[in-house]
Amino acid sequence: MNDEDLMRRAITIAHDALISGDVPVGAIIVNKFGEVIASGHNERELHSDPTAHAEIVAIRKATEIYGHWRLEDHTIIVTLEPCAMCAGAIAQARFSTLVFGAWDEKAGAVGSVWDLLRDPRALSKVEVRAGVLAKECSGILKDFIQGVRKRD
């Protein structure tokens, strides 16, 4: 599968967050053979857990499957640019690649506000491919935000 196909899968997963009123962000993790081994969507509202971002949920599932925390030779695909917490977790898990869709101009930590993964001082190097299906990914978020504003 290519980046766009994988991002479409992440977009589908992002919609699952809407059930619990969470911000629709989805993440999938694929191994070096392109097989999806874990996925997650935002679950902060569902679990009252500020760390339950899509990336963290997916990483926890992947490490549980493997029984260890290193995810070298794996790619994480996320519909929204990771925040500082998630970018740090991606680096700590030793992912080889991050693919993301929409930019997060307020809290993005992979180029928008900060660039934690490509900082020359970073301990591990992560290849970053940004803006994959950005319009579709940002559209989901805009629709959600407009819906929340209408309710308020």
Gist?
The chain is 38% helix and 17% strand. By secondary structure, the protein is of the alpha/beta class.
Structural summary, described in words:
- There is one protein chain.
- The protein is α/β, with parallel strands linked by helices and 152 residues long.
- It is built from five helices and five strands; from the N terminus they run αββααβαββα.
- The protein has a five-stranded mixed beta sheet, sandwiched between helices.
- β1 and β2 form a beta hairpin.
- The mean pLDDT is 95.
Features:
single chain, 152 residues, alpha/beta, 5-stranded mixed beta sheet, 38% helix, globular
Detail the topology: elements first, then pairings.
Layout: H1 3-16, E1 26-30, E2 36-41, H2 44-47, H3 54-66, E3 75-80, H4 84-92, E4 97-102, E5 127-129, H5 134-151
Parallel strand pairs: 3-4, 4-5
Antiparallel strand pairs: 1-2, 1-3
Describe the largest sheet.
5 strands, mixed
Distance between the termini: 41 Å
Shape assignment: globular
Oligomer: single chain
Beta strands, count: 5
Strand content: 15-25%
Which structural class best describes the helix and strand composition? alpha/beta
Residue share in helix: 25-40%
Radius of gyration: 14 Å
- Model regions low in confidence, pLDDT < 50 over at least 5 residues: none
Averaged pLDDT, please?
95
Number of helical regions: 5
SSE pattern, N- to C-terminal: HEEHHEHEEH
Strand order of the largest sheet: 2-1-3-4-5
